[in-house]
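Issue 218. Parser rejects a valid record. Input:
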Amino acid sequence: MNKKYKKIVLILLIIIVLLGLTYVGICIYYNFKDKNDNKNILENIEVKETEKEKKPEKTQRMLELEELKKENNDIIGWLEIEDTNINYPVLQGSDNDYYIDHNYKKEWSAAGSLFLDKDFDIENGSDNYLIYGHRNKTGIMFEDLIKYAKEDFYKTHTRIKFTTLNEDSEYVIISIFYSRVYYKNETNVFRYYNFVNAQNESDYNNYVSNAKKNSIYKIDESATYGEQLLTLSTCEYSQNNGRFVVVAKKLANNQ
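Output the parser choked on:
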């Protein structure tokens, strides 16, 4: 190889290295920004005393959610799991694509947001609220959901808090399982992500039964027809299009 070609190769290698470093730098910047943007979101939300007096039936979190919704009408709830980073607003768009890579401010974000499936009716109620979220190496969004793969963690964190504009509720976990997105030609498989509203009691019981049957360890809690369900879904990397899923049911007041 003559000097001319060596020089060209060297220049190309330098360009590749610089592009690589630039890409890494951009990734680090956006990871830091995502983590910072999603930290303590409610700290700057101020609920006026007059609002508390006018709406005594509302909890502090419900009032904070009302204020936050003024920034983005797509915000429909707040999800929190103790001793995890899962403490975020939940959004719902007109499709299931937008909030994959946008935050609650509608800014582009690699981490995306937690979002309710587009087919679910938060106003009139659905038998099951299915919430999606990315896993993220910085620990935000649904990365900590995978902690439930360990039974010891589940035993000390059996409840999930989900707040909407209408109620501040706790859910108790009934199942934790691995799944994946199935091909259309696959039959006799549990497509948990298709369950929105039960057509009847049998349909509801079939969902609960499949969730319980697939649970990675025994959980005594179950659900009966009419009880509100909450399903949290994130990616799982041991298989192609893998998913990690936590299903819970809403507790009656003061339970």
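Fixed in the parser; the record now loads. The helical segments are 3-37, 49-54, 60-69, 151-156, 201-213.
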